[in-house]
Amino acid sequence: METACSEDPAVPRPILSILAATGVATLALLLTLLDLLVEQGAGWLPGLAVDFFDRLILIGAAVVATLMVLRLAHLSDRTDRLELNVERAAREGKAWRAQSRRFLDGLSAAIERQFSDWDLTPAEADVAGLLLKGATLREIAVLRRTSEATTRQQAQSVYRKSGLASRAELSAYFLEDLFSISEMDVRPQSPDGIRFDA
């Protein structure tokens, strides 16, 4: 995938800015000088030299204008690429959220069924759900507007009814099937990082 913020090495930004500023300043200086010389009727300056300076100034202005147009075209292309990347990322994010929402809804339904199979009361199911989300007993008590002692008793009831011993076992009960053991590298590893085939 192309990096959206990559710079075009053919037109370095600092050099282009310096050239443009120098070109504009030189152009302004030469125009002012030419006007002064023509107004004062410098007889010592032949008309050919005035024409030469005039053409030189026009060429310089054309070069500066070309450089600026090239830079603007580069910025416009870059902006278009960035807009396309943002639109694509938004579409991909929306699709991923929709797909993950379906999976999470299925997981939530499976968890609720298991809570029902364990005969958890609605309060115990709330506590179990919050335990799975990683909330502490104190946080659960605050969220449910109960005492921490009540929350602790409900958590113990969840563990007793489920046959699990702790929050870690409760989490593992629902999450272990999300990660297939066959997909994980579980070969023994020596202290120096070399893996042994089983």
Automatic annotation (TrEMBL):
Q: What is this protein called?
A: Helix-turn-helix transcriptional regulator
What's the domain of life for this entry?
A: Bacteria
What species does this protein belong to?
Tropicimonas aquimaris
Q: What keywords appear on the UniProt entry?
A: Membrane, Transmembrane, Transmembrane helix
Q: Which residues cross the membrane?
A: 15-36, 56-73
The HTH luxR-type domain covers: 117-174
Which parts of the chain are coiled coil? none
Membrane in keyword set: yes
The UniProt entry, under InterPro entries, shows: Sig_transdc_resp-reg_C-effctor, Tscrpt_reg_LuxR_C, WH-like_DNA-bd_sf
